[in-house]
Amino acid sequence: DAGVTQSPTHLIKTRGQQVTLRCSPKSGHDTVSWYQQALGQGPQFIFQYYEEEERQRGNFPDRFSGHQFPNYSSELNVNALLLGDSALYLCASSLSRLYEQYFGPGTRLTVT
Amino acid sequence: GQQLNQSPQSMFIQEGEDVSMNCTSSSIFNTWLWYKQDPGEGPVLLIALYKAGELTSNGRLTAQFGITRKDSFLNISASIPSDVGIYFCAGHPNFGNEKLTFGTGTRLTIIP
Question: I need a labelling partner for A57 at 20 to 30 A (CA). Which of A32, A33, A97, B7 fits?
């Protein structure tokens, strides 16, 4: 049973650039949530996608956007990158309204 | 917004010792989840709790959903080297709210 997968593993970008991160949910899951985790802190909720729509959003600017595809995989896009966007970006999947979220290994984004 | 405070922030124990940590909230939570995170990896779900007063075990781990619904506890018995890592509590503040709020984390270190 494949777990949550994310790509790429690591990414280095320059300030002002745009980045796209990808996530494939655990088999059988239809809901994907994205989190940002700064060094030494707990994950912070960015948004959640269900039925290809953004269901809920955390306190992140519009530079952060996402998309969910018919196969339930998801993308996180960040525009106009800032140095402060450097973090571990985590994707978590769950089965609809069940609250058990399973996390992928994350994508480490470094903005220089 | 809701905040989850975990204590202690860090623990230094010897192999074989029992461990206790807790998580408190300023408001009521309807679900509590406990995760373990190793460096550079995503959080791994350990235990999920859904009812006030609920006590759930997973091997050497036992977690409880506080009866006030504002706290949760995690105990680890007879610690082993692979227990090293950061433990996060997380919860959903209300039904229908898919946003998962994370605690500040407890870092567990085993002294040789």
Answer: B7
